[in-house]
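Internal ticket - ligand job 316, phosphoric acid mono(formamide)ester:
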Amino acid sequence: MKKFTCVEDIGNLQVAIDEALEIKRDRFRFQNIGKNKTLLMIFFNSSLRTRLSTQKAAMNLGMNTIVLDVNHGAWKLETERGVVMDGDKPEHLLEAIPVMGCYCDIIGIRSFAQFESKENDYSEKILNQFLLYSGRPVFSMEAATRHPLQSFADLITIEEYKKTTRPKVVLSWAPHPRALPQAVPNSFAEWINATGYELVITHPEGYELDPTFVGNAHIEYDRKKAFTGADFVYAKNWAAYMDPNYGQVLSKDHAWTVDTATMALTNNAYFMHCLPVRRNMIVTDDVIESPQSIVIPEAANREISAQTVLKRLLTD
Ligand code: CP
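stdout (structure tokens):
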């Protein structure tokens, strides 16, 4: 594997999940394959889980790690080619990227959608420049349109908790005070579609996702119908994707908060969320604290998905 930015890069999904579960059983078995190798993690956006779990995964493999918070302590970066750089950005990404590549063996990059241009966001402008110019294997730590390390961890978690071979998985929009990217729901849909599990996506009208990611999922606007019989409920907020409302908050309707009444419609479903989660906006205290909530094991599996990806990037 030379890059990891989407589900296709991981190859056979069942093989990848089995490999991840093997790593989880003995996460220090491959502690020498990263010896004298350096992982550079570059963050254009904040993180708790991705930063800690990926660093831990690299340490399990014997790697050295460098973390760069681009917005804290680095030169402000110009990203547009052709700009006369007479403003407040003294360095261009086109020099910065190959320079960063000089100091490491693998690069992880987090760069969210900026909601300034749908075209820029959905063409993955920043991530693709790292792929083109760093000279190193690159993996996504959440880009503008996808969060594959999260989705891989989500699938590992579902594999561990599922009670049927083809569970019903419901991806539900939930309210949030601010506009959030579509990367997590896009990616979750993409990975679940690759499994062949039943996927139902429910959201208020106007929150339709990019059809490329929705694939064969069933869109159900009737929230109660969507939740009925669910084995897994994956709650997430996202801003509107469709034009002319791209990047906008169209609703903060608390009727979409996942509560005990909603969960009672399900097949005793497990509750999932990528975290961080806003309690009593996305999900009530009761649900997230219930035995059916698996948000912590889900977050713990971020170390495993990252370690599986890093192991492959080191050895392939
Ligand atoms: N789920 C996730 O990616 O968490 P962080 O934003 O804290 O890294």
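Auto-summary: The chain has two domains: 3-146+302-315, 150-299. Residues 3-146+302-315 form a domain with the Rossmann fold fold (CATH 3.40.50.1370).
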